[in-house]
Amino acid sequence: MTPPLTSATLEASPNIGAVAPKQPEIPTHYILGIRFHSLQLNQALDIIDHFIAERTPHQISFSNAQTIALCQKDPELQRIINQSHLNLADGMSIVWGAQMLGLKLPERVAGPDLMNALCQCATEKNYRIFLLGSTPSNLLNLKDVLMKRWPSLPLAGMYSPPIRDRFNGNENEQIIHCVQAARPDILFAGISCPKQEYWIAENLQQLNVPVCLGVGAAFDFLSGRIPRAPEWLRRRGLEWLFRLSREPRRLWKRYLLGNLIFLSLLAREKIKFKVHKTFKKPR
């Protein structure tokens, strides 16, 4: 069992006990059976502020073309994502797919970008954060990068779990105990999709963290272990191609097959949408 790298228990956040303002209704759209919340990054930050003030556990998910492809053969994953308190479009293909269906998603909100913005917010508002995932060495590198950028970042603790599809009972108890002792406001889980979505959903109430996010490869990007695509490629929806060129043997199935499945499903949905509109036209 990998021991926690740190487990700092600091003073509780001053936000505890704050009265949460009434949360505005969030517009949602269903794309190929997956519910997406129609938010810009700054709007997502406002909603997360509300979640933290509420002090009740919330799960935040990120979905892209690969996620939708996985959900076609995994109804339980689809249920978990659709029951998340926020599910954000982590891919320009989702934004463009929504437009093809006449729906509005204002922008892509990727896990690394939201994590970066939340670290800034944590520094300003004293939100305590916890890092769960990656290898011990990369987690230490990530800590160094974050603390250099935000020296006053309230890092409550971090933990590198065993690399396996599912933690055994003792491992899971150790992780939960470490998180509970640290009392974070925000838990970033970087343990890959769909493992992180399952784990958060199964342990959300016991963790009792106001906001739990499954951020996937964000730890690797922010630590510098894996270079991220340039901004101009991300704006054009080609970050997947950049990653594929860097790790073709590991990622070809995820991106090539995932994107093909997504595009075929989207084309079928577009045809159904057109047929439905045709038959609804008044004669």
> What is the string of SSEs from the N terminus onward?
EEHEHHEHHEHEHEHEHHHH
Could you give the distance between the termini? 69 Å
What is the CA-atom radius of gyration, in angstroms? 19 Å
Strand order of the largest sheet: 4-3-8-7-5-6
Question: How would you sum up the global shape?
Answer: globular
Number of helices: 12
**Helix percent band:** 40-55%
Most strands sheet: 6 strands, parallel
Tell me the fraction of residues in β-strands, as a range: 5-15%
Poorly predicted spans: 1-18
Class per helix and strand makeup: alpha/beta
User: Average pLDDT, to the nearest integer?
Assistant: 86
Number of strands: 8
Describe the structure.
- The protein is α/β, with parallel strands linked by helices and about 280 residues long.
- It has twelve helices and eight strands.
- The chain has helices at about 40-55, 65-75, 75-85, 90-100, 110-125, 135-150, 170-180, 195-205, 220-225, 230-235, 240-245, 250-280; strands at about 30, 35, 60-65, 85-90, 130-135, 155-160, 185-190, 210-215.
- Strands 4-3-8-7-5-6 form a six-stranded parallel beta sheet, with helices on both faces. Strands 1-2 form a two-stranded antiparallel ribbon.
- β7, α8 and β8 (about 210-215) form a beta-alpha-beta unit.
- α2 (about 65-75) packs across α3 and α2 (about 65-75) packs across α12.
- Mean pLDDT is about 85; it is low at about 1-20.
